[in-house]
Design brief:
It is built from four helices and eight strands, in the order αβββββαβββαα. It has one domain: Sandwich (Tumour Suppressor Smad4). The longest helix has 9 residues. The strands form two sheets. It has a six-stranded antiparallel sheet, with no helix packed on it.
Length: 157
Amino acid sequence: MQLITREFTNYKSAQYQVTIGQKTQEWDAFLISFANSTQYGNNFHIAPQARIDDGLIDVCLIRDFPKVTAPALLISMLDQSIDKNKYDVIIKASEVLIEHEEELLGHVDGEPVHLGKKAQVSILPLALNVAAPPANLKQTQNILSPLIEMLPAMTRN
């Protein structure tokens, strides 16, 4: 936990050039994430409105925020309200180009990657076939559900 706390307190946002379609903007971002579905995993929802079958990427930009608001930001990921947080911007796109003066470091499906100074992300709509069990099978209950249900009232501005 000490390592996480130290890294978080020392981590600084950076300037990125983000091109979506024909529009290029400069963003001071703490985090940029590309989502094809709503969550990272473990019920942390980075893009609550993302859909796997809409042919679009949700580009999630977390702008620089006061570190003391980090718990509320994390809670908003758990209760699927991050898209209502004033530090979060979500833009839907089919293709995105991110540029930075230094090498971009990231994670793809949890694996660390070096991306160079430019990273282009695009989507191939409906390119993945997935087999799933019938919808009528009993779904497991999330052990965090009771906690998550209590949090919205505590985190609203």
